[in-house]
Amino acid sequence: MSFSGLGTSLVQLAIFFILMFLVSKYALRPLLATMNERTNHIEGQISVAETNRAEAEKLVAEQKELLIATRAEAKEIIDRAKAQKEVEADKIMDKAKSQADQMLAEAKKEIELEKVKALASLREEVGALSVQLAEKLVGETLDQKKQANLVNAYLDQVGRLQ
């Protein structure tokens, strides 16, 4: 090997180190800085995504709890409405029964009153007919007291026969 080849090799080696220094300072460092920024950005995005996923899971859990609570409340409202419906139905039935019983009692009273009136009217007619018959048979006129006694005696006798 020659000395002149050594000088060229040293110059080439010096140029290589100078180029390495320049490439590392102006090309490699900005490239590494950009790659580090990109890595940091990606890590930040992953962190944000994990945070968002955790919040979404939390919201889903809250929604499930709210749905369960809403269903329970709806069931409670339906149960209360059913109970109230039954109470109202019982009240209506009791009121209708009470009114029916009252109407029945009034009808019975009216029937009894009409029966008493009919019996009194029948008594008067039977009495008048009896007096007329007795007058024809006896041939004399009866006074009011005798007529009443005769009618009562006749009706008592008819009542015993029935």
UniProtKB/TrEMBL annotation:
UniProt topology in membrane: Single-pass membrane protein
Pfam (any one): ATP-synt_B
An MF annotation (GO) of this entry: proton-transporting ATPase activity, rotational mechanism
Coiled coil region boundaries: 46-117
Chief localisation class: membrane
A GO CC annotation given for this chain: endomembrane system
Keyword annotations: ATP synthesis, Cell membrane, CF(0), Coiled coil, Hydrogen ion transport, Ion transport, Membrane, Transmembrane, Transmembrane helix, Transport
Signal sequence residues: none
Family matches, as InterPro entries: ATP_synth_B-like_membr_sf, ATP_synth_b/b'su_bac/chlpt, ATP_synth_F0_bsu_bac, ATP_synthase_B_chain
Membrane-crossing residue ranges in chain numbering: 6-28
Subcellular location: Cell membrane; Endomembrane system
NCBIfam families with a match to the protein in the record: ATP_synt_b
Recorded family membership: Belongs to the ATPase B chain family.
Function: Component of the F(0) channel, it forms part of the peripheral stalk, linking F(1) to F(0).
SUBUNIT field: F-type ATPases have 2 components, F(1) - the catalytic core - and F(0) - the membrane proton channel. F(1) has five subunits: alpha(3), beta(3), gamma(1), delta(1), epsilon(1). F(0) has three main subunits: a(1), b(2) and c(10-14). The alpha and beta chains form an alternating ring which encloses part of the gamma chain. F(1) is attached to F(0) by a central stalk formed by the gamma and epsilon chains, while a peripheral stalk is formed by the delta and b chains.
Protein name: ATP synthase subunit b
Organism phylogeny: Bacteria, Bacillati, Bacillota, Bacilli, Bacillales
